[in-house]
Amino acid sequence: MDAKLTLKLDKNVIEKAKEYASSHNRSLSRMIESYLKTLVDKDTAQSEKDFEISPFVKSMRSGVKFPADFDYKKEYGDYLAEKYR
């Protein structure tokens, strides 16, 4: 059963959220409902460690670790600049 809820939010946030929902072919109401459901329904929400990774995907790991602040766009740009120099 659906019920109505009134929220007060920043106007800019509402506009951006509407654009986001529209670009993903969803209604803003359903998007907010899905988000709230993940917060309150911990029994059905799975944490990252609960996901089973297939053996094929595991075999694709390279073992390379990158720093948290690694800027792949800059590195790729540098690579292309060097390649086409």
Compose a concise summary of this entry:
The protein has 85 residues and is mainly alpha-helical. It has helices at 11-23, 28-40, 55-59, 72-83.
How does the SSE layout of this entry go?
Layout: H1 11-23, H2 28-40, H3 55-59, H4 72-83
Biggest beta-sheet profile: none
**SSE order in H/E notation?**
HHHH
- The average pLDDT is 84
Estimated share of beta-strand residues: under 5%
Low-confidence stretches: none
Decide which structural class fits the backbone. mainly alpha
What is the approximate shape? flat
Specify the oligomeric state: single chain
**CA radius of gyration:** 21 Å
Write up this protein.
By secondary structure, this protein is mainly alpha-helical. It has one domain (11-83). It contains four helices and no strands. It has helices spanning 11-23, 28-40, 55-59, 72-83. The termini are far apart. The mean pLDDT is 84.
Which structural traits does this protein have?
85 residues; 4 helices; mainly alpha; 0% strand; single chain
